[in-house]
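Annex B. Sample input.
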Amino acid sequence: MGLSKKTVKFLSKKCTRSLAGKTVLITGANSGVGYKTAEILIYLGARVIMACRSAEKANAAREKLLSEYPNADIRVMSLDISDFDSIDKFADKLPDVDVFINNAGVFMHPGETTKQGFDLVMGTNYIGVYYLSEKILPKLAQLGHGVAYINTISIIHKVAKVRFDRFFSEKGAYSRSKLCLARYSEYLFRKYSGTNISVFMSHPGITITQIASHVFGRIYFLAKIMPFNSTEKSSLSAAVILAGDVPEGSVVGPGKLFGGWGYPKVNKKCKRALRDIDPLIEFTQNAVEKVNSGREEKTKAQVT
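Annex B, continued. Sample output.
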């Protein structure tokens, strides 16, 4: 099917920098915004690595992309962002990349937890990205070239609240996870400023995906007749960051109606994402260290 004429026209006007020779790794690239992001970046000339939980789905997506772009260089890697063990194995095999896009995420999974016992939504969307980032960013910082690091947040983070006594509660977990990720991304931007790591945030706005169906519930049909973004339009943010001229630390997403739809541009940062960063990082470090201590004790017990 390929990209629409409108998308191609937008890319020719706004994304004038070729990505030929660049290697881009995208988590959760087998469907939705992740898949379309991969397609758009392939169109711009990039090599793409699809890091996904399901090898079967990732390989099917790869074959689909190759049917449209037969000369594309596309690889598949295994990564379950909700599982520390999977992240550890992935980090040990981390390839040399020019761009790393944290796209994988989940929405509503009541009663489900990660392998390490976190609520699945918070454990995937925030804790998993945090743990992965802390594992791989020191390695990426040692590369002899620049690396763009892009975390995918959501406009819903603007209405979220963080309370540490209810941090892993299912209620409001999705919006809270995205606010935490926005704060963590700001932390990373400040930490790696002046290094070879350039940190950005992107968001898809409101688009017609499985997540939208959860948000709208029984009135999902209204979303299809409202002027919300197609998945393809919502996947253009990374292209604008990489092939345009965007300052480090920027948030890029749809530019109309509070970031809900439209073509991407640099958005104003939400004040909620700029405060209470240090307490969040300390809380997260303690939560992760507690889990890792338990994993180490379990490993020792198995050895003995």
